[in-house]
Design a protein that fits this description.
Elements (H helix, E strand, L loop, with lengths): L2 H32 L2 E8 L3 H14 L3 E8 L1 H9 L6 E4 L2 H9 L9 E4 L3 E6 L19 E4 L5 H12 L3 H4 L3 E4 L2 H9 L5 E5 L16 E6 L10 E5 L6 H10 L3 H8 L11
Parallel strand pairs: 1-2, 1-3, 6-7, 6-8
Antiparallel strand pairs: 3-10, 4-10, 5-8, 5-9
Helix pairs in contact: 2-9
Length: about 280
């Protein structure tokens, strides 16, 4: 083989290798374009209405992000994270759950944002008689009151604080049935197992109506906001997340005007109500 032939073969091999690398690079770029960023959000199941509306608005604004939302009780979601599950974003129905996630090192404190608020109400089965005010809960015929456990659930914490600040807790503690999950307390009321309960207004009575039938209950009274800490529905990034940029986009979107309008139109108070 002549020297010229060897040079030609080497040049041909270099060209083939270069062409292969270019094809591989284009393939990787195309794959990246086909596979959008993926963000997994853990969200409280009592707020599927407003959160779902905000999620829909986010998907329209950011079609490049594959946003997946898993709804469940916040305590269940927290325990799942404690056992090793790793969403990118955690949403909380109050400061209690989010505070615990931050304290345990799962959620980055500097990423937490308030995205909405809710009013607290006393509600009762329509069959409960002679119950028209919060103070009526102390009457002898009101024997059972359902409340989510204040140690684990924000709604229960706010409810207990409200009763204490109203000077009623000492009278009501013995008749209060603490439930592990807020929906259990709601269900006890809707099923007529107790005479009354405490829940967020619209949550899940309107914001997740398939879980609680409003037709079987009535709102007795809205508890004055100055009797319990502000209800801070919050969103934050997990310390370990797969796509921080896209996850941060979602967190910031939840406090945007478009998201605030979406949640306000679907049974939740916008964050400006906290001010």
């Amino acid at each position: 083989m002549t020297r010229g032939s060897r040079i030609a073969i080497v040049a041909l091999l270099i060209a083939v290798v270069g062409l292969g690398a270019a094809i591989l690079l284009r393939g990787r770029q195309a794959q990246t374009e086909r596979d959008p960023s993926h963000v997994l959000v853990y969200a409280p199941c009592g707020m599927t209405g407003p959160i779902g509306a905000a999620v829909g608005a986010f998907r329209q604004a950011h079609p490049e992000v594959n946003l997946e939302v898993l709804y469940d009780n916040a305590v269940v979601l927290m325990r799942s994270i404690g056992r090793g599950s790793r969403p990118d974003v955690f949403m909380s129905p109050g400061h209690l759950e989010m505070g615990q996630m931050v304290e345990e090192g799962f959620v980055a404190a500097d990423t937490v944002r308030d995205f909405g608020t809710l009013d607290l109400v006393v509600f009762a089965p329509k069959t409960t008689q002679d119950l028209n005010t919060i103070q009526d809960l102390t009457k002898p015929h009101i024997k059972r009151i359902a409340l989510a456990d204040p140690e684990y659930n924000s709604v229960g914490h706010y409810g207990k604080e409200a009763f204490k600040n109203l000077g009623l807790w000492d009278s009501l503690a013995s008749k209060t049935f603490l439930r592990e999950y807020p929906l259990e307390a709601v269900t006890m009321v809707t099923d007529g197992e107790v005479e009354a309960g405490v829940t967020y207004l619209t949550c899940p009575l309107d914001t997740n109506p398939e879980k609680a039938d409003r037709s079987t209950i009535r709102i007795v009274a809205t508890i004055p906001r100055d009797k319990y800490p502000p209800v801070r529905c919050q969103v934050g990034l997990l310390e370990q997340n797969k796509d921080r940029t896209a996850a941060q986009q979602f967190v910031e979107f939840m406090v945007s005007e478009k998201a605030q309008q979406a949640i306000a139109a679907n049974g939740m108070l916008p964050v400006e109500e906290l001010r």
